[in-house]
Specification:
The complex is a heterodimer of chains A (about 240) and B (about 220). Chain A is an all-alpha fold. Chain A has a domain at about 150-235. Chain A has helices at about 1-10, 15-30, 40-75, 85-100, 110-145, 155-170, 185-235. Chain B has helices at about 10-35, 40-75, 80-100, 105-140, 145-160, 165, 170-180, 180-205. Chain B has about 220 residues and is mainly α. The longest helix of chain B has about 40 residues, at about 40-75. At the A-B interface, helix 1, helix 2, helix 3, helix 4 and helix 5 of A face helix 1, helix 2, helix 3, helix 4 and helix 5 of B.
Chain lengths: ~240, ~220
């Protein structure tokens, strides 16, 4: 397919010109939504879905499943010396096929059809726990503790203290516990509730900053698309 | 009232085998992330690569499901039939163009550059208008939280404009302070909660308390 594509597009100009016109048309189709939800906008959204599905599935099949099948065939031809490699190649295929059994009504609820899913959940949960511990929890806690360490600038300690108060407050903002009856429990509840309310303020500041970054990114995308239409397509600027 | 009969053998087989697989594989991979040992590392490497392969099969399952859904729509001559035909046809064309090279060939690059990228960028650009209307509606709620939200958004937005440094150096400095102190604290608190939530959910899955794979 690539050879065919290269032979058609070898002259360079035609495919690029066709691409620019296609991209411009698709951009305009998407922007028709500003008028209202039109048939043209739905064509663009269907094309986005179809393109994404086709691209991802082709890449996954070409880069993950195809090499596996090639390796399996090679290992089968090298038997009996390569029995371990054959088993290592076959086991994930068995797990994958068990997953595909979910498509058949007769096998949907069987133990075999659950094995692949259980494997995915097991691996996913373990990687998620490891990632959350080493990628989120420990670095964030470490950074929060380091922020209160004495630093050069005289006002930096105040910022560090604010970060600690805000971090704990934002964390306590999601505390939903019924207070106990004892006096110390009520005092503890009042303190944590107050701190949590303060933390909600920090969360809102964070959301505001995130929204501003989001707006900046989206405006950049809009400017990029308008520039593409006016420069690459219409050659006006 | 007659109690339903429970077949212990079937129950054990249905629950025990999937839970055993999830628990066994999960614990090996989890331990492998914190203990450095060459044998364990190679076992974890094989298990994780199998996970990628099973994930690819999961994608095939999703594709088959999607195909059946759209085929059903087309066969029923649903009102959405033209869009289903478009989705299936564009997916097939792109699939055939990309498959031979796997994303690195000239055809794949053409699809990415002139089909996917403009569509994605246009959809992202379209969000500017919806964010604008959402912000307007949010600002109509007059609470102290929304006031903080609006002030923070305005300070960061105005401070991000390069020209503002010429007007006053305090504006970019204020933006830097908001991003690096209160906003950082808020995000950090949320991230700590997210991390604890992930760990709790993962442990519930690994210990078999939650068994979404054996329902």
């Amino acid at each position: 397919m690539d050879t065919l594509f290269n032979s058609v597009c070898s002259s360079g100009g035609f495919c690029d010109a066709l691409g620019v016109w296609l991209a411009a048309l698709l951009t305009i189709l998407v922007f028709t939504y500003l008028i209202r939800d039109t048939f043209l906008f739905r064509i663009a959204s269907s094309l986005l879905v179809g393109t994404a599905i086709g691209f991802v599935s082709a890449v996954v099949i070409r880069n993950v499943l195809y090499p596996l099948v090639i390796a399996l065939v090679d290992d089968i031809f090298a038997l009996p010396g390569s029995w371990l490699a054959v088993v290592i190649d076959l086991l994930p295929i068995v797990l994958g096929v068990s997953l595909l059994m979910k498509l058949t009504p007769n096998f949907r609820g069987t133990t075999f059809s659950n094995i692949g899913l259980a494997y995915l959940f097991g691996i996913g949960a373990a990687l998620a726990i490891g990632g959350a511990l080493s990628g989120l929890l420990v670095p964030q806690l470490t950074a929060t503790m380091i922020s209160v360490a004495p630093q050069g600038d005289s006002l930096d300690w105040l910022n560090g203290l604010l970060i600690v108060i805000g971090t704990l407050g934002a964390f306590l903002a999601f505390r939903f516990i019924q207070p106990g009856d004892r006096p110390w429990q009520r005092v503890y509840d009042t303190i944590t509730k107050g701190w949590g309310t303060l933390g909600r303020g920090f969360i809102m500041v964070a959301f505001g900053a995130l929204l501003a970054s989001l707006i900046s990114a989206r405006v950049s995308a809009l400017v990029g698309q308008l520039y593409f239409l006016l420069h690459d397509w219409l050659n006006l600027i | 009232m007659e109690q339903p009969r429970i077949n212990i053998g079937v129950l054990l087989r249905r629950q025990l085998i999937p839970v055993g697989i999830a628990l066994g594989v999960g614990l090996i991979v989890l331990i492998g992330q914190f203990i450095s040992n060459s044998t364990l590392d190679s076992i974890v490497g094989v298990l994780v690569s199998w996970g990628a392969i099973v994930g690819a099969f999961a994608l095939l399952l999703g594709l088959a499901n999607l195909g059946m859904f759209h085929a059903g729509r087309i066969l029923k001559r649903d009102a959405q039939m033209p869009f289903s035909i478009l989705i299936v046809a564009s997916a097939l064309v792109v699939f055939l163009l990309v498959l031979p090279s796997g994303g690195a060939g000239a055809a794949s690059q053409w699809v990415m550059r002139y089909l996917y990228q403009p569509l994605e960028a246009s959809f992202l650009a379209l969000l500017v208008f919806f964010i604008g209307s959402a912000v307007y509606r949010a600002l109509r709620i007059r609470t102290w939280e929304m006031a903080l939200f609006a002030i923070s958004a305005i300070v960061v937005l105005v401070g991000s404009v390069p020209f503002m440094a010429v007007v006053s150096p305090l504006i970019p400095a204020a933006k830097e302070w908001v991003v690096n102190v209160p906003a950082l604290a808020g995000v950090r608190g949320i991230l700590l909660g997210v991390a604890l939530g992930i760990i709790a959910t993962g442990l519930r899955l690994l210990t078999g308390i939650d068994r979404p794979y054996s329902h």
